[in-house]
Design a protein that fits this description.
- This protein is mostly helical and 86 residues long.
- Helix content is 53%, strand content 9%.
- The protein has three helices and two strands.
- It has helices at 2-22, 26-36, 60-73; strands at residues 43-46, 49-52.
- A two-stranded antiparallel ribbon has the order 1-2.
């Protein structure tokens, strides 16, 4: 029994992230935006990544809400930060 489950578990570990990135997460992102008090068009799923437009307009609480919800829902995301030099 365990011999048959090991290949299945290995496949799920390898393919899990790829499947998550190929899914369209737009409905989940709209729900997160609504819950966190952002316009739905500020969170978009584009080319397998989350794009957050106008993030500088969000409050600290809204930002923490978005990051917490993305993590809780298992939405894959790459994070990068850009500074304006100030």
């Amino acid at each position: 029994m365990i011999r048959t489950l090991l290949p299945i578990a290995a496949f799920m570990l390898v393919e899990g992230p790829a499947l998550a990135e190929s899914k369209d997460w737009t409905p989940e992102l709209h729900a997160i935006a609504d819950k966190c008090g952002l316009p739905p068009d500020h969170l978009k799923w584009i080319n397998g990544t989350v794009r957050w437009s106008n993030a500088e307009e969000a409050t600290y609480g809204q930002s923490m809400c978005v990051f917490g919800e993305l993590k809780a829902k298992g939405i894959p995301m790459k994070q990068g930060f850009v500074s304006d030099g100030s």
